[in-house]
Amino acid sequence: MVELKEAGVDLTKVAVELADPNAGSIWSSLIPIFGIVVMGILFFVLMRGATGSAGNAMSMNKNKTHVQSHLKVRFSDVAGAEEEKEELAEVVEFLRAPRKFSALGARIPSGVLLVGPPGTGKTLFAKAVAGEAGVPFFSVSGSDFVEMYVGVGAKRVRDLFDMAKKSQPCIIFIDEIDAVGRRRGAGLGGGHDEREQTLNQILVQMDGFESNDGVIVMAATNRADILDPALLRPGRFDRQINVNLPDVKGREQILKVHARNKPMAPDVNFKTVARITAGFSGAELANLLNEAAILAARAGKNMIGNLELYDGINKVLMGPQKKSRVVTESDKRCTAYHEAGHAVLACLCKHCDPVHEVSIIPRGRAAGYTMTRPETDDNDVSYNKLIDNICMSLGGRVAEELVIQDVTTGASADLQHVSELARRMVTQWGMSDKLGLVAYDSDQPVFMGMEYGNQSRGGYSQETAATIDAEIRRLISEAHARATKLLKENRSIMDNMSRVLVEKETIYTEEVALLMKGASYKEVIAYMEEREGTHQNDPFRTATTPSAEHVVQDETPAEGAAENADETPVVMDDKDVMFGVKPKDKKEKTEEKPEDKTEE
Length: 600
Fold this sequence. Notes:
This protein is α/β, with parallel strands linked by helices. The chain is built from 26 helices and 9 strands.
């Protein structure tokens, strides 16, 4: 200013405008607002993901119970479990005519717990009870009760029982109750979590201050061992019904139930199918028929035949065939010897299940397979059968060692099976002389909450652990030596079987029986070419005809019982008994040994 005056500038004629130092562009003023909006959107997205809601942040209060008033499921739709039906028929009578029981002072069961492996029809049983009684059916999953917010699960339990009381008599069904009914105090976190509060509310509703005479709670689980004891006491779950895997008669009935709405060929024999599907659950049998129907449709057939059923069994057990997989000749030969080793030992070991099929066509993750199926349902497995199974399972590795002079990774699944079997024999089933009749491990799956800090698993000394490892190695080593001896003695049979497999890729019981009798490679090939197409026409006959070693004998008549009483092998230390040769038959066995007819 002073300089301007000295320069003679008239300041009265100059317009001066002072700028606001806080003024800026409009964009700079919007930046804080934009940041707040972004933070709000991010917070909303995170909250929506945390609550598990698709559009409503308060959906945790939504009732997830499914209500069905007129179920059409009946006991006739549930096959293969007659004893379970009888138990549940009483529950139906309670619901239909409660006065008949109350007049005698009987109290209606407040809860029924269905326990069994997956796929055995526990949910179907609950629906059948509601359908037979004609009462409303409230179904909910155990995991539906548990949310991240405290109090939501308990509120859902109260809402569920309030709904049921308004519709009594009725049935509440909680599927997979172990998700919410686990033993309290078994978790690694605090003892007052949301799940335990939900369980407490279930306990109060089932047997608390209020009466629920017209409401029966049914629940299903395959882990009854981890449920809270308060949940299992009388007054809550009064009855526990074990729903086991079906036996051969039950499997036949289940197959007939699921085949009602399917066009079956007139020559289909469900009794044969039931015999070869030992160990299948009801869900697996239903899946078997569905796979057979798909295979029949793929082949352009209008009926489901035996071939589709047989292929369906293989698909359920081992996965689909992979015929398009490129396999080198060396790998093909290696797989053929591997499977031949399994099959030969399965026939030589007396207590192994009969061989139904041997194939080098890849299925699932396996390069080949040897299918053995039991003739009868085994409720208890003997020591002899376990030892024979270990020996048979090592047949593939031993065949590689003898023929290829090398080992491959193809026996990895066999080694895992053998190791697990030997460990359970030693630690669970008391089949070790050194360790005695002591169970060191439980056969129940590990439940982290109960086993944390529990000494029931691994609660033994280092010396005992070393003895356990030594006994496991001994069982496997003895089985390996036995498998090596048997395959060396029957090398010609294994060579012929592998050559047939390389050429034909799949053989069945009849071809295996011929090879075990000493038939040459050319004789078996000629037999198969002469009977070309027989398996497609009647696969169960060609694949399930039992060999002489595995024919199921009838019970010995009383008059001959004294003669044959000493023929049962008991002591496994004797080499002949271990190999399934009885002392009095040893000479006959030697004379019947087939002549070596291997074709060079």
